[in-house]
C-alpha cells in the first residue's frame, strides 16, 4: 500500500451549544427556550494537505452530549477507511452504518442513532466535495444519474418508487440543467425568513422584523403559532398589516395540536390568509396530517423537519397528507437518505421547501435544495428555503442572502465547517462561555422542582 | 421536612451484555449475531429499608453504552424526587421527561432517548409496586380507573380514543376481574415459544426444540424467516412435521421485506399453514403493513416490537393494518405509554400478544399482559405472550413457565431486578466475562474491513 494513501485516522467530536434561549431566538409553542446546539464531528485524514470532512447533528441543548456519544460510537466504522474510496462512494459508508444490525436495534433508522449516522455521512460528503474541489450542490448536480442511483437505499420504497423510476427522474431532471445552473449562479434560490416570527418576541419586534424582511426582498415570512389562539390572531393581524397582502405568511405549530384542534385553530386564523400550516400535529402521524389537510384546505399543509426517515416520507406522499415537504439536512441519515427523499418528492410532484430553523441547517440544506433545482425537480414555483438570521457568523462558509435569496456557494464542500474559535468558546461545558455561565449559576443547572 | 421522607438520591446505570451471539440464540434474518444486552438503571432511595426501583432498555450489543448515556442524562429529573410522591403518581415523572422540550428534539418520542425515558419510568413503577407490596400486574389491575386515566397521555390520540372512552373501557374491563384474577393465579396466561425457531439453529436443533415445546405444553411456536426462501420452506416443513397440524406456527421476518416481496414470500409458505407473519416490512410502514395484510389474508399480520410510540400504534389500528399487536415493555416510554397502547388496542378490538424476544422482556411484559387480561381486554382467545428460554437465571424474580403458560408473579415489583452477580460478571467492558474476552481478541473488537 503506498504510504501516500490518505486514510481517516480519527474522528473528533464537539458538544457545541449557543445560548439562544437568552434572547428567545428560536422559541416556539413546543420549544420555549431552545439553546441551538450542534453535535459536531470531524473526520480527520492522515495527511495535512488532504481535506477533512465536517458534519453535525442539530439539537436544542440538553442531550447534545448523548448525541455526541452516539457519533463517537460509530468510530470503529470510520477509522482506517481509505479517504479516496470514501469520497468515491459515500454510499458504502452509509450502507455499513445502516446495516450494523446491533446499532439498528436502537432505531431502526430513527432518533439519536440515526441522526448520528447522518452526521458522519454528511461529513463524508463534505470530504468528497472538498476533494473534488466543488461545492456539494455542484458535485451532486453534475454526477451521473447511474452513480447517484447507487447512493440511494430503495429498501422499503419499492411500492412507491423503483430504481428504474428513480433513474428516469434523474435523467429527466438533467434536461435544462446548464440553464438552471446559470440562473442559480446569477440569482440564487428564493428564501423565506422565520426570524420575525419566533414565539417569544414582542409584537413590536415582530412588526419591525417583518417590515425589515419585506424591505430586504423576502416574499414570505413565517410565524410560530399554537400556544394561545388570541395571541396568534393578534400577532398574525400585526404581521399581515406589516407586510401587506402580497407577501406570504406561513404559520408553524411545532406539533402542538391533535387533529380536530388543528382544523379548528387554523380556521380561526384563516382571515389572515396563512400560506401553509406547518407541523400541525405529531410528525409521526401520517393519517393525522392527511385528515388535517382535508379539514384546512385550501390552506396548505407542510411538514418534514422531524420526518424520521424515507419510510415516513413515502407514506406522507402516498396518503396525500402534505402539500409541501420540509427536508432537513441532519434529521435523517445524511445526503444518501435525503437523495431518496428528494426522489420520492419528485415522483409525487410535491415541492420541497427545506427546514432550516437551527444552527448550520441553512448552510447544509441550501446544497440539497440547489441540487433539486438544477438536476431533479427543476423550477417549481412554490420552492423556497427557510432562513433564520442568526449564528451564521460561526461558520467558515456562511450562507449568503441577497434580496431574499440564497446565493449559490462556491467554496468546495458542504459548508459544514464551524470556526475553531466558535467551537472553543461554545464547547459545553468547558468552553469559555459556558465555563463562566455555569460557575455563575448557583448549584446544578436544572434544579429539581420537587413535590 | 421530616428526615424520614425517602428521596431518590442517585441513579446507577449498568451496561450489561450477554454473549448470545456465540450460540446464535436470538438470531434472525435482520440480526444475525445479537448479544442480548440491557442498559440497566437503579433508582436508589435515601433509606436502606425503602425499596429501590429497577428498569432497563433492551438492546442487542453495540450502542448499549449510548443507551446508558441517555439514561444518565435524565438524572437531573430524578435525583431529589420524593419516593412516595413518585410512587403515588409515576405519570408526573413521565410527563416531566416527555415534556423536556430540549430532550424531545432528539425524537420526538422515539429511539434512544425515548427508550431511556422508558427505562426510568419502568423503574419508577417497579419502585411503586414494591412500596405497595404488590406485583405490578396486581397494582394495575386493582387501581381505580379514574387514577389509571391520569397516567395516560392522550396527546395525539383524541381522534381515535378520548379520555371518556378510555374510562369506559377501564370500567367495563373491571367487570369479572375477581374471577379472572382467580383464574390467573390458578392457571396463568398462555405463552408461545420462539426458542425452537432462531435462524442460526440447525434443522436438527429446530426439530428437537419444537418437539420439546409441544411436550412442555406450548400450543404455539415461532420460526424466524426471511433470509432464504428455500431454507424457510425446508425449516417450516420440518417444524410442521415435528409439531403436527394442531399447533400454531407463527413466522417472523424481522422487517426484511418490501411490501410486494412480503406478499409473495408468505404465499410461498402458505402450504405449511403459518398462523401469523410478524414484522413483514419496516415497522414504520403503517400503509405497508395494511397492504401486506390485504395481500396475505387469511394469514394474520403481527407487529409491534419496534412500534416507536402510541401515535404509530394508533395509526396501525386506524388503518386496519394488523391482526395482532405485539407490545414491548422497553421500546416506548414505559408503563404509562403502554397503558395508552393497551387502551387503543382494546378500543379497536385487536388482541395484544406481547413481544419478549430479548433479555428481561418476559419478566416485564408478563405484568402488562396479565393486567390486560384481568382488568381491560379480558379473556381474548388469541392472546399469547412470547417466551424464549434463555437468560432468566440472571433475574431475582424470573418468569415461571408451567405447561406452556406464564404463572402470575407474586413478588412485589416489576420483576425487573437482575442479580448483582450477573451485573458484575457481564458488565461491559470491565466485568469478568468481557475483560477476559476482550483481552483474548487481538486488536479492536470490530476491525475495519478496509478496501
TrEMBL record, chains A, B:
It is an enzyme of class 4 (lyase). It comes from the Bacteria. Its EC number is 4.2.1.68. The keyword Transit peptide does not apply. Keywords: Lyase, Magnesium, Metal-binding. This is L-fuconate dehydratase. Gene3D superfamilies: Enolase-like C-terminal domain, Enolase-like, N-terminal domain. Pfam families: MR_MLE_C, MR_MLE_N. PANTHER family: ENOLASE SUPERFAMILY, MANDELATE RACEMASE, MITOCHONDRIAL ENOLASE SUPERFAMILY MEMBER 1. Its cofactor is Mg(2+). Residues 203-299 form the Mandelate racemase/muconate lactonizing enzyme C-terminal domain.
Amino acid at each position: 500500500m503506498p504510504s501516500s494513501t490518505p486514510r481517516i485516522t480519527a474522528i473528533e467530536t464537539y458538544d457545541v451549544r449557543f445560548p439562544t434561549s437568552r434572547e428567545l431566538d428560536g422559541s416556539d409553542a413546543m420549544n420555549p427556550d431552545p439553546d441551538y446546539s450542534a453535535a459536531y464531528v470531524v473526520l480527520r485524514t492522515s495527511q495535512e494537505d488532504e481535506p477533512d470532512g465536517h458534519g453535525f447533528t442539530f439539537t436544542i441543548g440538553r442531550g447534545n452530549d448523548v448525541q455526541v456519544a452516539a457519533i463517537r460510537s460509530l468510530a470503529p466504522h470510520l477509522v482506517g477507511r481509505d479517504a479516496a474510496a470514501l469520497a468515491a462512494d459515500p454510499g458504502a459508508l452509509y450502507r455499513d452504518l445502516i446495516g450494523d444490525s446491533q446499532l439498528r436495534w436502537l432505531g431502526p433508522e430513527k432518533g439519536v442513532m440515526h441522526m448520528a449516522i447522518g452526521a458522519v455521512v454528511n461529513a463524508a460528503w463534505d470530504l468528497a466535495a472538498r476533494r473534488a474541489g466543488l461545492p456539494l450542490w455542484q458535485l451532486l448536480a453534475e454526477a451521473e444519474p447511474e452513480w447517484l442511483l447507487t447512493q440511494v437505499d430503495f429498501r422499503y420504497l419499492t411500492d412507491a418508487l423503483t430504481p428504474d423510476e428513480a433513474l428516469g427522474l434523474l435523467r429527466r431532471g438533467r434536461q435544462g440543467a446548464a440553464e438552471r445552473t446559470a440562473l442559480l449562479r446569477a440569482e440564487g434560490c428564493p428564501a423565506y425568513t422565520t426570524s420575525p416570527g419566533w414565539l417569544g418576541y414582542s409584537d413590536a419586534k415582530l412588526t419591525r422584523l417583518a417590515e425589515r424582511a419585506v424591505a430586504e426582498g423576502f416574499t414570505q415570512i413565517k410565524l410560530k403559532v399554537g400556544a394561545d389562539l388570541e395571541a396568534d390572531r393578534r400577532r398574525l393581524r400585526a404581521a399581515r398589516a406589516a407586510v401587506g397582502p402580497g407577501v406570504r405568511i406561513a404559520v408553524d405549530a411545532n406539533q402542538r395540536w391533535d387533529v380536530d384542534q388543528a382544523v379548528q385553530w387554523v380556521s380561526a386564523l384563516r382571515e389572515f390568509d396563512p400560506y401553509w400550516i406547518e407541523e400541525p400535529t405529531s410528525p409521526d402521524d401520517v393519517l393525522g396530517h392527511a385528515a388535517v389537510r382535508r379539514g384546512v384546505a385550501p390552506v396548505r399543509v407542510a411538514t418534514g423537519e422531524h420526518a424520521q426517515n424515507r419510510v415516513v416520507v413515502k407514506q406522507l406522499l402516498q396518503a396525500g397528507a402534505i402539500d409541501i415537504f420540509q427536508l432537513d439536512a441532519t434529521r435523517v441519515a445524511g445526503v444518501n437518505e435525503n437523495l431518496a427523499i428528494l426522489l420520492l418528492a419528485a415522483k409525487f410532484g410535491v415541492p420541497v421547501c427545506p427546514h432550516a430553523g437551527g444552527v448550520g441547517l441553512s448552510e447544509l440544506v441550501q446544497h440539497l435544495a440547489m441540487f433539486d433545482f438544477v438536476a431533479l425537480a427543476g423550477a417549481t414555483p412554490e420552492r423556497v428555503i427557510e432562513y433564520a438570521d442568526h449564528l451564521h457568523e460561526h461558520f467558515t462558509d456562511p450562507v449568503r442572502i441577497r434580496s431574499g435569496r440564497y446565493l449559490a456557494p462556491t467554496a468546495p464542500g458542504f459548508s459544514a465547517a464551524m470556526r475553531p474559535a466558535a467551537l472553543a468558546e461554545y464547547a459545553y461545558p468547558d468552553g469559555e462561555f459556558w465555563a463562566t455561565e455555569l460557575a455563575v449559576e448557583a448549584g446544578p443547572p436544572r434544579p429539581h422542582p420537587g413535590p
